[in-house]
Amino acid sequence: MTANPRTPAMGATEWAMLIALSVLWGGSFLFIGIAVKAVPPLTIVLARVGIAALALNLVLRLSGQRLPIDGRFWVAFAIMGVLNNLIPFSLIVWGQARIPSGVASVLNAMTPVFTVIVAHFLTSDEKLTGNRLAGVALGFAGVAVMIGPAAVMGLGADVIGAVAVLLAALSYAFSGIFGRRFRGYGLSPLVAATGQLTATTAMMAPLALLVEQPWTLPAPGLGPVAAIVALALASTALAYILFFRILTAAGAVNLSLVTLLIPVSAVFFGAIFLDEAIAARHLAGMGLIGLGLLAIDGRLFAALRRSPA
Questions:
Q1: pLDDT of res. 276
Q2: Which of the four, 2, 8, 25, 158, has the lowest number of CB atoms within 10 Å?
């Protein structure tokens, strides 16, 4: 099978943004791991999207841009907010309270697999190809090798937590496909990110306040508060500006590759901040991930096929 010529290509700018996004979202597992020890899941999600929405609305106003008032945009913001924020954020935080962060990052790397399958059935220009199938397989194998068998063994009996993270990955896949329609709306990445986070906050607030009643909980310490603020500003507000730029320029399947890079960021965060050694399996896994990305991108292998023997 050959690549569909209408599939958006990844240029150097898109790859740079994808790597930056992987670092921001890779840090989210660290921040959630700190926060979830002191704050319940729905309250973490509400704080995450609420602080991010406030920050982006401020940036939007300072930049002279405005959120649209047309109802069709807000319907799209609400649907995107449910698929891309409310469901996966809640499931990941809930699941990460039950399984190790390394396991969660491996399961989250199923997003490209789900996205390729969902895109094949729901789109006309992001069909399953041999390159993509091989690339996803290589990438996921790299993630598994890099994390190692110890993380998988950490699942124990709590399969429900693992299922929750897998369902979050599936929700991300659907959000990437639905988000394709933002290409035709003529909205800037900042407006799109602000709109979906504002809509998510409006939906998340009554849910968290009703279920967890956070005002009745003990005040968290400085560490969890700092983790939530970092989660909101870096791993959410800034990350979603990059998210919509990549989605517009490179498509849902290419965007989903970020979940294969997130565990790489997690390894480096561990080495830098937790003094964890980088083992041989980490380097081998990164190599497989790199091959997977090259296979899905397709251009290197196409050039090799065109070269004379």
A1: 62
A2: 2
